[in-house]
Amino acid sequence: WRRLNRQSHGVVYTLGLHSPIIEVYRKRYNGRGPYLEELAASVATLKAHSPRTPIALVTDHEDNINASMAKLFDQIVVQKGKVHVSWGDVIPAVLATPWQRSLFLDLDVKVCADIEHMFDWLEYYDIGVVAEPYPFSHP
To answer: In this structure, are residues 45 and 111 in contact, taking their beta carbons and an 8 Å threshold?
Structure first.
């Protein structure tokens, strides 16, 4: 079991965690290219609007992130194991988070205001989700 600081909180991102199982996404989600650029952009908006919020990255391999990207995070968690479910990277990342209260952000999220108040909501709720801002359908 992990030791958690009961008073702690932070944001967690994921990169390359054994999934998604869809091949085209797997090729893009390997720690290089578009996903890495999206991650850097999201972290930049978080730091600009919520500079006190700690940030962790959960990944499945050290090679998924280079040294300059590693400097963007307060903690990097390397999680070994196999997860073979579509979009299954979120649950292992949240379970591996180093904080008592964690806010998971997708790589393409742009933070537009300070998010510190959102951690207070976790006093009353175990989980919260936000729906896609547009209708989403699969073929």
So the answer is: yes
Q: How far is CA 127 from CA 44, 68, 70, 95, 130, in A?
A: 25, 32, 28, 13, 10
> Under a CB-based contact definition with an 8 Å cutoff, are residues 45 and 110 in contact?
yes
Contacts of 84 (CB under 8 A, 6+ apart): 18, 19, 21
pLDDT at 69: 86
Do the domain assignments include residue 37?
A: yes
Question: pLDDT exceeding 90 applies to what percent of the chain?
Answer: 27
The identity of residue 119, as a single letter, is F
Whether 130 is covered by a domain: the verdict is no
How many domains are contained in the chain? Answer: 1
Q: What is the pLDDT of residues 66-123, one digit of tens each?
A: 888 899 999 998 877 655 544 566 777 778 888 888 999 988 899 999 999 999 988 8
